[in-house]
Amino acid sequence: MLACVELSEGHLSQAKLYADEFIKREPSVADGKVLRELIAQRKADPTESWTHSFASAWRASGSPQMTIDNFSFSESSCGQADKCEPREIPETMRNAPEELLAAFDYGLVCDSEKFLELCLTYSSSQTPMPIRLLALQWIDLKLSVESAKLSEHLRSRAKVRKHELIQELALQLPLDMRFPIMAILEETSENEQFSVSQIERIEEAASRPRLAPQTEELYN
Question: Is the full-model pTM beyond 0.85?
Fold first, then answer.
């Protein structure tokens, strides 16, 4: 992500440093190699269409199979012991919403209990909205991954907080249909049919002007 941010700002040397670091840490993930080629393409011709630059970078990297989602959010990325060594978050980053971002970079995601506790802490109404949305995403991920080692008490707390957070976001983000629809899905099992009232609520939610907050807004 840091490499992409620097690349989008035109800071190609810094972008290459981040890309090289990524490749060193994750040599088996093709995305890093494609990114490095993309940086080279942008340096060679900064006026070229991004789509063409990316296609050229992908071909120059051997047309590899790339990850569909951010591989780092996958529980399997913490499967090997040498990749799952949580480090202490620096004191300067603690007790602030950005601690949740730091926790991911410092490997705390591998400790499901500690990471989930941090997500619950930064899901409160006092936390900036982008961090709360990230906390919801990670709470949902940890609850859905069967291999995540969670106590029943913590799992129960997380389920309650997830439900509360979805309800809060449905009210606080009146332009977005995602959260009221999520609230309805939370009420039903996979094999259960929607009731008439639930269908009416889905239709009401779908009348909102957009699906969800734009990714670009959250990054900004």
Answer: no
